[in-house]
Amino acid sequence: MFSKKIQFICTKEYFDMDIEKPVPAINNVPSWFKKIKTSINNRTIKSCMPFLDSLTAGYILKLPVDIKIKHNILNPETGKKDGEQIPAAQRGASYFNDYDININTRLELHSIDQVEGSPLLEKNKNLPIHKFMNPWLIKTPPGYSSLFLPPMNNADDRFSIIPGIVDTDKFNLPVNFPFIINGDKYEELDTLIEKGTSIAQVIPFKRDNWKMCIEYDKKEEFRKRNMKFFTKFWKFYKNENWVKKIWK
Q: Looking at the 3D structure of the chain, how many domains does it have?
């Protein structure tokens, strides 16, 4: 059944610590979604298979250490607003460095010059973009890449990683995650992002070449194709079209 395998590889020292390993996204479905009731007379988002597929696709990476975030806070030394990222791992920086564990033992960021003119910068209050360091090397089979994005329909509202695609069949280093603060909601932010917080959803996919076609359908053909959909009240898409996806 499982012809493809995605590998999450870390140092033995980190592995032996037995903390914050990647999990299938299906193991990370939020409690609020589980509590929703649905029925033929009260069709809620619980019966929407595309929404469920977004929650359960791929794998979830979690923050390996507590990180204290100060963002757009007045700095008394400079008289300007700036920010800083203080990982808990800095308290044991020598330990983590000795074992070459890639989890926030130093400050990592992108300067504002790197994203000049981007709406990302405005949302981030025109401050440097910080980065989550990731201890996991991710490997996919030949011809497969990985899409990294904030956990779909289940993201922390304080921050968001910048989505990206990495050819993880060829790239032999851990993928780190630049992130922006949700400045649209938080004008200033002084918060603790706790170890175990979900930071990224990883979805492997096969690299294929595609060509788009724009076409039209005759009205009768369109009606004929769609008529069947309206013959049932309940779970037509799930029973007739949906394909179960398995991620383990």
A: 1
